Predict the structure.
Amino acid sequence: TVEAVRCLGLCDRAPAALVNHARYAPSDPTAPRMLLDGPPVIPKLRVGGLVKLALSNVGVVDATSLEEYRAQGGLAAMRKALHSMTPGQAMQAVKDSKLVGRGGAAFPTGLKWQFAADNPQPRFVICNADESEPGAFKDRVLMDGDPFRVVEGLMLACYAVEAERAFIYVRGEHRRGYERFSNAVQCLEQAGWLGDNIQGRGWRLHIEVRRGAGAYVCGEETALMESIEGKRGFPRLRPPFPTTAGLWGRPTVINNVETLAKVPSIIMHGPRWYSALGTPESAGTKLFAVSGSVTRPGVYEVPFGVPLRHLIFDLAGGLREGRRVQAILTGGAAGTFLTAEHLDTPLTFEDFKRVGGTVGAGTVMVFDDTVDLRDVLARIGAFFAHESCGKCYPCQMGTQRQAEILGRIADGDVRDDDATTLIELGQVMTDTSICGLGQAASWAIIDAHKRWPALLKPLEAR
């Protein structure tokens, strides 16, 4: 049977299909029988950028081979840490590099590690590989193309906080990512880089790869921990925070895939080298997943500070001839909109904040003048309504009501009080929801109303 679904995590190669867990992209939706009968067509990863740190091995080495990873300098940072750095020195290097979380929150990575290290052992470290938001696929590129780098970053994080057990939590739909991580962990165990008395240095570390069940809310760190513990993936009330009382009540560090992929370069080359890339307030490089109305959708790594225009037009190829930029959704479904007048804005946390944008996890969705933004908003509303876990009433009912109104607006049935109702719903969800899902579910809708007030008005009032 052939079934239409919302997202397969292949936004850069749409339209896409999944047949018996094999990915076909781009696919022809008019030929399902050919897909069912034919051999898998593996989508080629489109990656690029001004500088490649996290992406340096993607498409260059066999992602299943530890030998090829080591031939490109892999595990040199881990060896350096084990032989010439104390855990405290490794942690200080990350703090001095000004690395912040690449999953959206942008919390200082070294500071998070310090908070956990200040609490008693045992401690845990988790790699959050539950990327599952529409338009977000930059972590998938790392999982598929260079899993050893991510695992090495996880090992360095464990070394810095003196954790002896770690988990990699992979989105349920990312079957290949789960297989690549499992293979990487097995290879490192066989080579003596994981297990007991690693490389004869008296350090012990065991990593377990866990597969989620497809719930978007499990990307929220407390829901993720509930899932690992074998419970339903509901978010927890905070405080306490995970670095104090996380997995099984113990201090826990949770870092995003891209965040961990940056750590080996920092340890190997030093914090000053890394922080010199980018700007004083937004240090280093960032992966951006660019999709939508561009001619070369893909994942691009750039130092912070380059203009948005360079990302969209020089790297992602710009728009089709004769088309113009209508809107740019930054930060994903839980993000905000920019317009063509913002194309010269530098890609930094501080500059995006100044113009009302969000860097988030690095999602950039470009819409040209042929796209009906009401349909875009309806899809965002439907996504959050579908993914709400239902634990807290504001999010459970608020996302449902928001989706109903936006769906009706997209169908052309707009009422005088729709905009007011959506704004009030959004404010309630932002103020009273337990976790970031409900708190951010209305951001794109409210921001769209601010930038294009006529979107949510009846035709005669536009």
User: Anything to note?
Assistant: The first strand starts at residue 17 and ends at 19.
